[in-house]
Amino acid sequence: LTTDQRANRGLFLAFQYPVSITGVTLANFLRVAINSKLKASDPDSKGLSLVAFRKAMKSKMDFLGMDYSFAARYLNEGFSGGEKKRAEILQLAMLEPKFAVLDETDSGLDIDAVRIVSEGVNSLVGENLGVLVITHYQRMLNYITPDHVHVLLGGKIVLSGAKDLAFKLEEKGYEWVREER
């Protein structure tokens, strides 16, 4: 499937290094994405009105503790690592996918940003949203409690367990997993 077809079916991908798009504000990006999704599910849909969109976006920004000025900034341009990740969590909140893949969302974040982003993820995960968090570090798991931890080696899941597996990996590294295989 094409990227937009996957998104319209409920898949969201947060990149390790989100790209910047000069000339496209975060608000415009979100509005086009949401209206595209609505149009895909109902070809007769007119999409969200500007008033309804702004109300929804402000509500989500309040929920995530974000400053409204983010909405007027060009997508990821000049954003710090933490701001990029918060912008992605806002996109996640606004688009309301069924499943999200967060690819090394903690990469390049300071501890405060890891906490803020994790709290955003925790607030969204639930009955209507499943999340796969890809990380090489246990620190994000100080804030997000996984249902399952999997170790991928050579393109295959070679070990699975509960949260304690992440602590064991943090303590011993990955070499012991390779040695046991």
Molecular structure report:
- There is one protein chain.
- With 181 residues, the chain is of the alpha/beta class.
- The chain is built from seven helices and seven strands.
- It has helices at 3-8, 26-41, 50-64, 81-95, 111-124, 163-172, 175-180; strands at 11-14, 21-25, 74-75, 99-103, 130-134, 149-153, 156-161.
- Strands 1-4-5 form a three-stranded parallel beta sheet. A two-stranded antiparallel ribbon has the order 2-3. Strands 6-7 form a two-stranded antiparallel ribbon.
- α5 links the parallel β4 and β5.
- It is globular.
- The chain starts with a helix and ends with a helix.
- The mean pLDDT is 90.
Keywords:
45% helix, 181 residues, 7 helices, single chain, two-stranded antiparallel ribbon, three-stranded parallel beta sheet, alpha/beta, globular
Strand content: 15-25%
Tell me the radius of gyration.
18 Å
Q: How many H/I helical runs? A: 7
Biggest sheet details: 3 strands, parallel
Distance from N terminus to C terminus (CA atoms, Å) equals 34 Å
Element-by-element helix/strand order: HEEHHEHEHEEEHH
Number of E strands: 7
Structural class by sheet pairing and helices: alpha/beta
Shape: globular
- Can you give the mean pLDDT? 90
Neighbour order of strands in the largest sheet: 1-4-5
Measured as a percent range, the helix fraction is 40-55%
- Uncertain residue segments: none
